Amino acid sequence: MSTLDTCPAAGDQAPERTAGPVGGATPPYAEADPAAARAEMVARLEEEGSLGPGQVRDALLTLPREVLMPQAYVRRSGPGEEPPCWDLLDWSAPLDRPELLGLLYSGASVLVQHDGEPLLDRARGTRSGASITSMSTVMGMTVSLLEELDLRPGLRVLDVGTGAGVTAAVACQVCGDQGVVTVDRDQHLTDAATARLGNLGFRPQVVCGSGEQGLPGREFDRIFVSYTVECVPTALVEQLAPSGTLLAHVTSASPSWPGLAVVRRTADGQITAELRAVEFAHRAGHGMARIWLSEEFRQRIATEPGAWTQRSVLAPPADSDRGFWLAADHLLGGLVRDFRSEHLAIGAPGCGSWMRAEPVGHQCWSVTVNGPRDIWKEIQDIADRWRAARSPDRYRLCFDEDGGQRASAECGRLSWHLSAPRSHPLDEGATS
């Protein structure tokens, strides 16, 4: 599963909650033994609980990732170093194989495209400047979603966002390639996927086009969107066959608190859907607005005295209260969390407001707030509503006749619309 349709700087941004770890230690392989590396990767995924027995596991043990990704980038420049620098490793170069094998089977994201380049017939070597524009997603998240899809032989699968072709390859292996369609907006990626899936003996239909439009007039038993969207593409819902399942990550403009939309069509044709709070999600789709905390803004949050500081016996919601943070993200709008901070630190880049909360003693918090928005009060107000709604971690997702989408708790006390991106009034027209 890969994130084509990523934002232009996707390879350079801090992962926040949108992609899981991009880097990570790569196992050293003195000898390039792909079969052993595959077995080790599968064993790690099983140990961490992402992967269970079944056909997805069997496919991962069979599929040689070095055929799908015979070249991959490794970053050589340090954080913040300009211009950024990457080396393109090549499987055909014996000296590259141990490091490349470690990248491919570490379980971390694999960087496959720099600055929108063609993937076929590239020369190995160094690239600098610009950014990484496509990557194969963290395997733990990939396999958990593939397990959720419940792939079986004979199913018709639409893979939206071809990228490196990993999801399409697993679908071909499990379901048979005649029923698999993979679509991507980047001709370079679809050309490479066609060639490399063919090298594995797979001949799915590979389409260059808008992923959110899918294939009008067709029906699919499984639809998988491998980039984040602001709402579920209605064209894809219409293409979902009876007893089918669609998965897509959904976020606001903030990358901090994502959700997973799980859409099902019943055997009699009715649509049911829910939005689950999750820890990580795919990178944002092409053209999707994103807000970030600059390094300078992070430092201000961490060090400045703020407009006021108070002691509070009200604890902020826990990181594990993901259902709260998902709701707060959509209901408040414009907030980004600094996950690098040891304690809770949140900023509103649009207007420059921020807050930090640190524990001081037993059941007491030091809360510092700055800017026109009182983010601490906003959070506590939503927390009260969330608890009144029985602290949900998932929400019913409803599709209105006019094309709008609404997420709501079962008791109806907490709801918001997904159809349009939200922003807080104080953020409008302001800068950080």
Automatic annotation (TrEMBL):
The region annotated as signal peptide is none
The reply to whether S-adenosyl-L-methionine figures as a keyword in the UniProt entry is: yes
GO molecular function: any one? methyltransferase activity
Residue ranges, annotated region (Disordered): 1-35
Q: Which UniProt keywords apply?
A: Cytoplasm, Methyltransferase, S-adenosyl-L-methionine, Transferase
Instruction: Read off the InterPro entries from this record.
Output: PCMT, SAM-dependent_MTases_sf
Provide the primary localization: cytoplasm
Quote the subcellular location field of this record: Cytoplasm
Tell me, what is an example of a GO biological process annotation in this record? methylation
**Per its UniProt record, what Pfam families does this chain match?**
PCMT
Residue ranges with Low complexity bias? 25-35
What does the record give as EC number? 2.1.1.77
Family, as annotated: Belongs to the methyltransferase superfamily. L-isoaspartyl/D-aspartyl protein methyltransferase family.
Protein name, entry field? Protein-L-isoaspartate O-methyltransferase
Which organism is this protein's natural source?
Streptomyces atroolivaceus
